């Protein structure tokens, strides 16, 4: 197509293409450098069982501690990491760090904790992904059932047949699988039936206006019912207020994650969040109040 536009345009087009390529190489090397210089850190956000008031797990969320830009949110670099393929090394690092951190907390006596890790499409598609998950678990010394992998609908729909195969292999390994941002993607109920998943994570977009928007309320209660009927666990993300919490509890969703409980925090601070939760439970509390 560029050639049809004539000589000058052709040159312009190829230069633009070259620049784009250069930019990609730059981004890729910036991400690689960041990995080598240990500029990535994991933050952890608690997942709470509102029935018992106990923190049952946490989601690991990556941050880039950039020397000049400061703390960079994943939305700003995950898509680039996916595009350049750096997500493979980054994802492997996330998985290893999260498993090692969980092991540390387990050794400190925090049993029955699980860690949720986000997985991207490129990782799922990679040959040997399941084997590398098994190796990482073995090296960290944690039980497969303590690891939950969060997959998105779009990731799975990318290549349904392959995803279904990998999900069943992961399931056989014993790890838990969750569908993240559930309700925002394109998977059909027919697909859902074939996925070897354990958990539906209700997207925060539906939770936000839950108590004022009847449509969101209907969607959320429908997802909760769907999970119950399919024998899946259900967890809500983005819970910020007591009203949202009450609605969700009344409608049968007992696992929650959101700023109401805690923002994602570094590992050391998360240790304090866990200690606080233990203290609240010991004092007879059931609903952990905001600690953020
Ligand atoms: P996600 O997996 O759906 O993670 C939930 C996001 O919602 C997180 O944003 C979290 O900080 C935010 N959040 C939690 N509670 C609340 C709340 O009450 N209110 C609001 N408004 N937001 C809340 P974050 O950490 O910026 O991550 C954004 C996305 O980046 C994640 O969405 C996930 O898709 C991706 N991501 C993060 N870490 C990783 C990673 O290690 N690997 C991969 N592949 N993706 C990651
Ligand atoms: Mg997630
Ligand atoms: Mg999510
Ligand atoms: Mg999200």
UniProtKB/TrEMBL annotation:
GO cellular component: membrane
Domain of life: Bacteria
Full-sequence portion shown in this chain: 643 to 934 of 937
Keyword Metal-binding: no
Organism: Pseudoduganella buxea
Domain EAL per the UniProt entry, residue ranges: 24-278
Protein name according to UniProt: EAL domain-containing protein
GO biological process entries: signal transduction
Lineage of producing organism: Bacteria, Pseudomonadati, Pseudomonadota, Betaproteobacteria, Burkholderiales
Sorted UniProt keywords: Membrane, Transmembrane, Transmembrane helix
GO MF term set: catalytic activity
Subcellular location, record wording: Membrane
Main location: membrane
């Amino acid at each position: 197509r560029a050639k049809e536009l004539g000589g000058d345009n052709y040159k312009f087009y190829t230069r633009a293409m070259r620049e784009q390529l250069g930019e990609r190489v730059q981004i890729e090397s910036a991400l690689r450098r960041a990995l080598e210089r240990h500029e990535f850190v994991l933050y952890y956000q608690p997942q709470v069982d509102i029935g018992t008031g106990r923190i049952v797990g946490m989601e690991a969320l990556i941050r880039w501690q950039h020397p000049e830009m400061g703390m960079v949110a994943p939305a700003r670099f995950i898509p680039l990491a996916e595009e350049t393929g750096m997500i493979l090394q980054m994802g492997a690092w996330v998985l290893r760090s999260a498993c090692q951190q969980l092991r540390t907390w387990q050794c400190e006596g925090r049993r029955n904790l699980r860690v949720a890790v986000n997985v991207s499409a490129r990782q799922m598609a990679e040959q040997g992904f399941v084997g590398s998950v098994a190796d990482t678990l073995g090296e960290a010394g944690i039980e497969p059932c303590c690891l939950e992998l969060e997959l998105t609908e779009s990731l799975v729909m990318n290549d349904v047949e392959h995803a279904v195969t990998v999900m069943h292999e992961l399931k056989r390994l014993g790890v838990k699988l969750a569908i993240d941002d559930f309700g925002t993607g394109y998977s059909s109920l027919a697909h859902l039936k074939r996925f070897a998943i354990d958990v539906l994570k209700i997207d925060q977009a539906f939770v936000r206006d839950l108590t004022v928007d009847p449509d969101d309320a209907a969607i959320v209660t429908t997802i909760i019912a769907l999970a119950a009927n399919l024998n899946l666990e259900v967890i809500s993300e983005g819970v910020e207020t007591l009203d949202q919490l009450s609605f969700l509890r009344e409608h049968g969703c007992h696992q929650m994650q959101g700023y109401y409980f805690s923002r994602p925090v570094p590992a050391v601070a998360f240790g304090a969040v866990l200690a606080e939760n233990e203290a609240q439970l010991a004092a007879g509390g059931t609903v952990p109040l905001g600690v953020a």
